[in-house]
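Reopening this one. Same input as before:
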Amino acid sequence: NSIKAIAYQYTSATDMDVPRVNIYMTEVDTNYIGVADTVALDSMTLVFSGRHIFTNDEEWSTIVLDSPFNYSGTRNLMVAIERDTTVNTAGNFVYTAGSSNEYRCVYSYTNTSGTKSATRTVNRSNIRFSICTSTPVCERPDSVVVSNIQPLQVDVAWVGNGTTYDVAYGLTGF
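Same output, byte for byte:
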């Protein structure tokens, strides 16, 4: 399964321009966040880096990923957002959140003196993923004709509606 995009529910009355944002993804085994549960960004996959403008004309603001994330679907997905906090924005990166009985989100930051802090919360961002789960259909060709058989080459022709084909061959019984 390939995650192609992530969307955040954005319900602010004004647009928000985030000039520099990085989005990372990884799979984890935990389903809640404990005090010691942290994942270093350099061990996660950077899937988006750039500018994004959250507009108030749509409830969901979609970010198409620079690099799709291959998600197994068998473990939990962790998403990390890193933004440049030196840029004055209209407020928090994520506005609309749901709540849970367990810690599901961590907000971390480094203050001006270089001290790193993190806060767990039961609130979590409302997000959606665009996931490609379909396997391309391999259309079988019709009227296969083999001709001009040589020791190291052969001509093969067929009729079909596909735009590309993968040709596999082997010994008798392959």
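So the earlier flakiness isn't reproducible anymore. For the record, The radius of gyration is 24 Å.
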